[in-house]
Amino acid sequence: MNYRYHLCIPNKDSVRVQFWNPQFQSPNESSGTLNRDRLNDRIQSMLTDSSQLVGNAIRTVGEALFDCLFDSQLREHFLTYYQQVVLDKQQTLEIILAINETALPELVAYPWEFICLPKRYQQGEIRFATDPKLSFFRTRYNLEDSDRRSLKIEPENRLKIALVVARPIADSQLKNVEYRQVESHLNHLATQHKDIDFLPVINPATPRKVAAQLRDTQPDIFHFIGHGQLGQIAWVTESGEPDWKTASFFSNLFNQHRPKIVLLQACETAQESELEAFSSVAAHLMLQGIAIVIAMQYKISNQTASCFVGDFYDEIIKGHPVDVAVQQARFNLSLDKGYEQKDFATPILYMNSRDGYLFLQAETPDDDIIFKEDELLDILEQMIPVQFKKLCFKLKVPKNLLPSEDKDQTSKAIALLEWATAPGGCGLENINNAVNELLK
């Protein structure tokens, strides 16, 4: 388990937070107030009319979205956790956003990928969607752990990628669908990596052909390239005409086989209206049980989209988890396009899997970790009472040397370390061994 900071918006008034350290299954919790008044008329105008999102307006919206989620108390809490994890420990921090889509559909539609720490706090530059030491993604509200699918490809299997191209050649306005660059990239990956099986490209993408491929080849990644509009995707008829189908139609195709990842490379695939926010294709697929959905929330050029997906595939082939791959690909867009254009925040990642790894990670040695004294204190402070009692019992700590039960966990942790390092104590080596055994 990684360091995780899970933001949950259950209603129009509050924000709940759970945050994890890798050593423990149980999260710590905090809460704050949802400050929707930060999204004033000016911000709402920019959110409604995306053509205004250029230059300084992008930072203005990003800062307003941050202030909406983080009241003063929660902001200090987040910055402290960020300091500990990212700056002090040099670890990657997952930031996960879950919104009650039934009660708050309009909030689901907001472009949270723009979030950035306001400059007025003078705490440096933090952009949720592109910071290389973060991975930012969305997840379903109240999704049970038992409903999270595994992405793992079994060692004896190859990663099967299906490229589906909807290019209505009979329509002069829609026939410009660039897919050759992506096709070439995937062909190259398949020739360089024996674990990749690049399936025959489906072009034109008629519903019958797509349904047959899903049934017969059962791809792990379903990569669609074509045109989209609000809540609809353009398929193609046999005569080359556009065949507009609803989000529900699209998601129903996956009833016979659910790929691990669906990647929607379309003009407006994930853009949602204020009044019917959860009717987009991406949201339908998430409800359909697709573990990973990657989509675009704004119009994006074919060239830029191709660069993004190329970087994404390169990262997952290296063995990186999907969320890290998307974060790196968005960061690369920011390097190419800067932060004055909205390209870097256009790709959305919905992730409902147990973790983001497609390939089994190499086994790590079973050698115990040797914690320094300050690291041990950090671990002991975050132990739940049952774990701490087990540890003390194992180390045979004299009961009279620990503070009473009504004392805070920090006091107990300090007392335990003072006893362990004092003459007659168990010593750091024994407490290290006991902690390692408890955490396995």
Mean pLDDT: 87
Instruction: Count structural domains.
Output: 3
Span between N and C termini?
12 Å
Largest sheet report: 6 strands, mixed
Number of strand elements: 14
Give Rg in angstroms. 24 Å
Helix content: 25-40%
Q: What is the H/E order? A: EEEHHHEHEEHEHEEEEHEHEHHEHHHH
Supply the number of helical segments: 14
Which spans of ≥5 residues are poorly predicted at pLDDT below 50? 268-279
For the record, the CATH architecture of the largest domain stands as: 3-Layer(aba) Sandwich
Regarding quaternary structure, what we see is: single chain
Strand order of the largest sheet: 7-6-8-12-13-14
Instruction: Please identify the top-level CATH class of the largest domain.
Output: Alpha Beta
Quickly give the structural class: alpha/beta
Q: Which fold does the CATH topology of the largest domain refer to?
A: Rossmann fold
Question: So what's the overall shape?
Answer: globular
Content of β-strand? 15-25%
What is this structure, in a nutshell?
The chain is α/β, with parallel strands linked by helices and 440 residues long.
Structure description:
There is one protein chain. It is built from 14 helices and 14 strands. It has 3 domains: 140 residues, no CATH class; 193 residues, Rossmann fold, CATH 3.40.50.1460; 67 residues. The chain is α/β, with parallel strands linked by helices and 440 residues long. About 3% of the residues have low confidence. Helix 5 runs parallel beside helix 9 and helix 11 packs antiparallel against helix 13. The relative contact order is 0.10. The strands form 3 sheets. It has a 6-stranded mixed β-sheet with strand order 7-6-8-12-13-14, with helices on both faces. This is CHAT domain-containing protein. InterPro entries: CHAT_dom.
